[in-house]
Amino acid sequence: MSATERPWPPMLHDVAPGFTARTTMGERSLSGYRGKWLLLFSHPADFTPVCTSEFVAFSKAAGSFAALGCDLLALSIDSLYSHLAWIRSIREQFGVVVSFPIIEDPSMAIARAYGMVAPNAPDASLVRAAFVIDPEGTIRALSWYPMTTGRNVAELLRLVAALQTADAHDVSTPEGWQPGQDVILHPPMIAAAALEMPVSDGTEWYYRTGPVPGRKKIVA
């Protein structure tokens, strides 16, 4: 399906639109990330203060994403030369090396395929979009921020960890969940089982929490 035929923008559980593009680390294709988790995120423009703050934070957290088996891939409509000059400036000004590739998208082909440029946008600047793509190439989470507001990199890291935990253990995660904390266990789905379930820990049958299955509960 072409970008013009695809509903705008891609939604949860859609297959992420494929692409091949030049980046600051050579050519990259979405298909090359199959088998891995990927955080694909856009930024409105190089050499802008909010974007710079985000790239410093993403660079510092790159090791934590890597520990989860999640690659980082950035994108804007700026040229490759602009990207290279910007990451050089970030290294010189902040002592931070941007260790993930940045896609150049001057034709906006990728940006439009992912809905990063709205049909009624006043200019070609991108929103701060982020797509968490699973090893099968499916979009599992997405977020959208305006140009004026920086994202929380720690929250995106937590989001990836929560998705992986839910997949691996068939559980859900409560508000503010952090790795190592209790998760939400699936409630019974038939009346007989719900009525027979004892309330032994002060919680109702529909809200059961506990350690990740197979892991002992940590008592403080």
- By DSSP, the count of extended strands is 9
In what order do the strands lie side by side in the largest sheet? 5-4-3-6-7
The multimeric state of the shown protein is single chain
- First CA to last CA: what distance? 53 Å
Proportion of beta-strand residues: 15-25%
Please give a handful of descriptors for the protein shown:
single chain; 220 residues; Glutaredoxin; 2 domains; five-stranded mixed β-sheet; two-stranded antiparallel sheet; 9 strands; 20% strand
What would you note in describing this structure?
There is one protein chain. The protein is α/β, with parallel strands linked by helices and 220 residues long. It has two domains: 20-169, Glutaredoxin, CATH 3.40.30; 170-220, no CATH class. The chain is built from five helices and nine strands. The protein has helices spanning 49-67, 80-94, 109-113, 153-169, 191-196; strands at 20-23, 26-29, 37-42, 70-76, 102-104, 128-133, 139-145, 183-185, 208-210. Strands 5-4-3-6-7 form a five-stranded mixed sheet, covered by helices on one side. A two-stranded antiparallel ribbon has the order 1-2. It has a two-stranded antiparallel sheet with strand order 8-9. Residues 216-220 have low confidence and may be disordered.
Topology readout:
Elements: E1 20-23, E2 26-29, E3 37-42, H1 49-67, E4 70-76, H2 80-94, E5 102-104, H3 109-113, E6 128-133, E7 139-145, H4 153-169, E8 183-185, H5 191-196, E9 208-210
Parallel strand pairs: 3-4, 4-5
Antiparallel strand pairs: 1-2, 3-6, 6-7, 8-9
